[in-house]
C-alpha cells in the first residue's frame, strides 16, 4: 500500500496538523511525510517529503491502494478528517496533535483514529521512523503493550488497538474495518532520558483538543466576508506560533523548492522579525492579543544585547546560531536539491526589519498593549544604531545573495522606523530625541524620492539607479510612505502590472535582471500578489481588486492552505508550506477589501498626496 513508486505528492495534497510547538504534514494518501519533534525546527523523524518513503513516514490507508479521497478540517479546529472511498466501502481517518496545556515543549503526541463508515475495508498501517532527517534507523523494542523506538536522544512510543508487527525496519499492521468499528493509533515523542511515558486517553484528548481550538477561535472578532478562508488562515498562523516561547515561524518546512527541480530551497522553520511582525498585524487586528504579548516578550529576549548584533532571523527560542548546511542523503522534493537546514540569511544586514519592528510595537501601543518601560529603552537603542546605518547598502527584503545595494524598499522601511519612533514618542510622552528623528525621517523621504524614482519608467525601482522593478515597492503605499493615489505610486503599480506579472500574478523581481546570486528562477510570489490587491483597493480599483483576490483564494488547496509561491505553467503550489507570509497577506487583503484593513489604517498615517514633481530627476 505504501507508494512503491517513491514519488512525492504534490505540495497541495498536504494538510497541516500541529500543537503550536511543532506540526506535521498529512498527505491525501493518509501518510504523514513530514514531522519534526519536539519543536518544528528540530530534526525530522519523518522526512519522506524531501526524499524517499524510506526516509520516514507513517501511513494509514485502505490496503488495496485505490480510493477516492475527501478531506476537511473539523470546523474551526486543526483536526483533520480524511475519508477514503473504496470499492469495499468507506473509512474515515481523524488526525490531530494533542493540545495539552501541561505538555512541556519536549513532548508531543500524535493521535490517529480510523473508523469504518460503510462496508468492510482492509486497512494497512506502515510506520517507518528515521530520526535525524531520515538518516537514523532506531532500535525498536516492546515495552508492555507499546513499541518504543530509540535513537540516541530521541524516542517515539507507539500504541495501537490492533496488533502490530515489525518487518524490515518497518512497523506494520493489517486489519479489517467494518461500519462503526474504530481503531486508534498513538505516537508520542519524548527525549529518551525521560523514562516514564504516559500515553494520553485518545478520545478525551480529541475532545480537549477540539475544545481548545474552538475556544481559541472564539477569542477573535473577525466577522467580515470570506470568514471561512480567513479563519483557516488565522488558525494556520496560530499553528506556526510557538506556545512555549512566543516565536512565530515563517513556515513548517525546509527546502520545498521555489522552482520545481531547482536549487532555491531554503529552511523556513525559524522566526524572521519581518514575517513575525507581519503575522502579528493579522493576529492583533483580528483580536488575538495574547500572541502579540508573547511575541513581544520573545522579541525582547531575542534582541537583547548590542543593537549591532540584532539578527533578522532567529531559532524559535531566540537561538542566534542557525548556520546553513546541506543534507546530502535526502534527494530533495521531486529531486530538487540541495536540501538545506539552517539559513545563512541570519548573517545578512536587512534594513527593513528595523521598520517592521518599530511598526509592530507602534501598532501594539495603538491597540492598548502598553509594554513595559524597558521595551522603549531597547527601541531607542535600536534607533541609535539605525541613525548611523540607514544610509548603507543592505541585502534587502528578498535576502538576495548577489551583493549589497541601496534597495529602495529598505530605505522606505528605515523611514517607517523613524516615523513610528516620532509618533510613539509624541503620542505617549516617551523620551526622544524626537526632533533628530523627525529630521532623519524627512531626509530619508527626500533621499528615496530623489534616488529611488526613475522618471523614464515613471516608477520607483528596485534599488537606487536601477531600471528594475521589484514587488516590494507595493509596500510603499501600504506603510504610508506616500498616498496610494500619488502619481509616483500609481505609476509604480502600473509598471509592476505591465512588467512584473506572470499569468496575472506578481513576481517578486526578475531574477535574470536582479543579480540575486542564485541559479534558476522562481514562481510568482503569493504575498506580493495580495499586496497588489491592497494597492488596487487603496486606488479605488475595487472590482479589479476583488477579481484578483478571488483568483488568489482559488489557489488555496482543498483545506485552505497556501505555500509561498505558485508555478503558473505547472499550475502547482511551490515553496515552503504552509507559509505564514502568504496567509498573513490573505487575511490583510480580505480586511482591506472590507474597508477595515491595515492598508486603510496605515493610510491614515501618511502625508497628503502630491503630484510627485519633487521626485523628478
Ligand atoms: O529567495 C531567496 C531567499 O529566500 C528565503 O527568503 C524568503 O523567505 C523569508 C521567510 O519567509 C522572507 O522573510 C524573505 O523575505 C524571503 O525572501 C530564504 O530564507 C533566503 O535565505 C533566500 O536567500
From TrEMBL:
Keywords: Carbohydrate metabolism, Glycosidase, Hydrolase. Pathway: Glycan degradation; trehalose degradation; D-glucose from alpha,alpha-trehalose: step 1/1. Residues 596-617 are annotated as: Disordered. GO terms for biological process: trehalose catabolic process. Residues 227-590 form the GH15-like domain. Its EC number is 3.2.1.28. Residues 8-118 form the Trehalase-like N-terminal domain. SUPFAM superfamilies: Six-hairpin glycosidases. It holds the Pfam family Glyco_hydro_15. Gene3D superfamilies: 1.50.10.10. This is Trehalase. The lineage of its organism: Bacteria, Pseudomonadati, Pseudomonadota, Gammaproteobacteria, Acidiferrobacterales.
Amino acid at each position: 500500500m505504501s507508494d512503491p513508486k517513491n514519488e512525492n505528492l504534490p505540495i497541495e495534497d498536504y494538510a497541516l496538523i500541529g500543537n503550536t510547538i511543532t506540526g506535521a504534514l498529512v498527505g491525501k494518501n493518509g501518510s504523514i511525510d513530514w514531522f519534526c519533534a519536539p519543536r518544528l525546527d528540530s530534526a525530522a523523524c519523518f522526512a519522506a517529503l524531501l526524499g524517499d518513503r524510506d526516509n520516514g513516514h507513517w501511513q494509514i490507508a485502505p490496503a488495496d491502494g485505490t480510493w477516492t479521497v475527501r478531506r476537511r478540517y473539523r470546523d474551526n479546529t486543526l483536526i483533520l478528517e480524511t475519508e477514503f472511498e473504496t470499492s469495499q466501502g468507506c473509512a474515515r481517518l481523524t488526525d490531530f496533535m494533542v493540545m495539552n496545556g501541561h505538555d512541556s515543549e519536549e513532548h508531543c503526541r500524535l493521535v490517529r483514529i480510523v473508523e469504518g463508515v460503510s462496508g468492510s475495508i482492509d486497512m494497512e498501517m506502515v510506520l517507518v521512523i528515521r530520526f535525524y532527517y531520515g538518516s537514523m534507523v532506531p532500535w525498536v523494542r516492546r515495552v508492555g503493550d507499546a513499541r518504543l523506538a530509540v535513537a540516541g536522544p530521541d524516542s517515539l512510543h507507539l500504541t495501537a488497538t490492533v496488533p502490530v508487527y515489525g518487518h524490515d525496519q518497518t512497523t506494520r499492521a493489517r486489519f479489517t474495518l467494518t461500519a462503526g468499528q474504530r481503531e486508534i493509533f498513538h505516537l508520542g515523542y519524548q527525549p529518551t532520558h525521560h523514562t516514564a511515558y504516559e500515553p494520553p486517553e485518545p478520545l478525551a484528548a480529541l475532545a480537549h483538543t477540539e475544545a481548545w481550538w474552538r475556544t481559541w477561535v472564539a477569542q477573535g472578532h473577525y466577522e467580515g466576508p470570506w470568514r471561512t478562508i480567513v479563519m483557516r488562515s488565522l488558525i494556520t498562523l496560530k499553528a506556526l506560533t510557538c506556545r512555549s516561547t512566543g516565536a512565530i515561524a515563517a513556515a513548517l518546512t525546509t527546502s520545498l523548492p521555489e522552482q520545481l527541480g531547482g536549487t532555491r530551497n531554503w529552511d523556513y522553520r525559524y522566526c524572521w522579525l519581518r514575517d513575525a511582525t507581519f503575522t502579528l498585524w493579522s493576529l492583533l487586528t483580528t483580536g488575538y492579543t495574547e500572541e502579540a504579548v508573547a511575541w513581544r516578550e520573545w522579541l525582547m529576549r531575542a534582541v537583547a544585547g548590542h543593537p549591532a548584533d540584532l539578527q533578522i532571523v532567529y531559532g524559535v527560542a531566540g537561538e542566534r546560531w542557525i548556520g546553513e548546511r546541506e543534507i546530502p542523503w535526502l534527494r530533495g522534493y521531486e529531486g530538487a536539491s540541495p536540501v538545506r537546514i539552517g539559513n545563512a540569511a541570519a548573517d545578512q544586514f536587512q534594513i527593513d526589519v528595523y521598520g517592521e519592528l518599530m511598526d509592530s510595537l507602534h501598532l501594539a501601543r495603538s491597540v492598548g498593549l502598553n509594554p513595559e518601560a524597558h521595551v522603549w529603552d531597547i527601541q531607542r537603542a535600536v534607533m541609535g544604531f539605525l541613525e548611523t546605518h540607514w544610509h548603507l547598502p543592505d541585502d534587502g527584503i528578498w535576502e538576495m545573495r548577489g551583493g549589497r545595494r541601496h534597495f529602495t524598499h529598505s530605505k522606505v522601511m528605515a523611514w517607517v522606523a523613524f516615523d513610528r519612533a516620532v509618533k510613539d514618542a509624541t503620542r505617549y510622552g516617551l523620551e526622544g530625541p524626537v526632533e533628530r528623528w523627525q529630521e532623519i525621517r524627512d531626509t530619508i523621504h527626500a533621499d528615496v524620492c530623489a534616488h529611488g524614482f526613475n522618471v523614464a519608467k515613471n516608477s520607483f525601482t528596485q534599488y537606487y539607479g536601477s531600471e528594475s522593478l521589484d514587488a516590494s515597492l507595493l509596500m510603499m503605499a501600504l506603510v504610508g510612505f506616500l498616498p496610494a493615489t500619488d502619481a509616483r505610486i500609481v505609476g509604480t503599480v502600473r509598471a509592476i502590472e505591465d512588467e512584473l506579472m506572470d499569468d496575472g500574478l506578481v513576481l517578486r523581481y526578475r531574477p535574470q535582471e536582479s543579480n540575486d546570486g542564485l541559479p534558476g528562477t522562481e514562481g510568482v510570489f503569493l504575498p506580493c500578489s495580495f499586496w497588489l490587491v491592497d494597492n488596487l483597493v487603496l486606488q479605488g480599483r475595487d472590482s479589479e481588486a476583488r477579481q484578483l483576490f478571488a483568483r488568489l483564494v482559488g489557489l488555496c488547496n482543498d483545506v485552505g492552505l497556501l505555500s509561498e509561491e505558485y508555478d503558473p505553467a505547472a499550475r502547482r503550489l511551490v515553496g515552503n508550506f504552509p507559509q505564514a507570509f502568504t496567509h498573513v497577506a490573505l487575511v490583510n487583503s480580505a480586511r482591506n477589501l472590507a474597508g477595515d484593513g491595515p492598508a486603510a489604517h496605515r493610510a491614515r498615517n501618511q502625508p497628503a498626496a502630491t503630484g510627485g514633481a519633487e521626485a523628478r530627476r
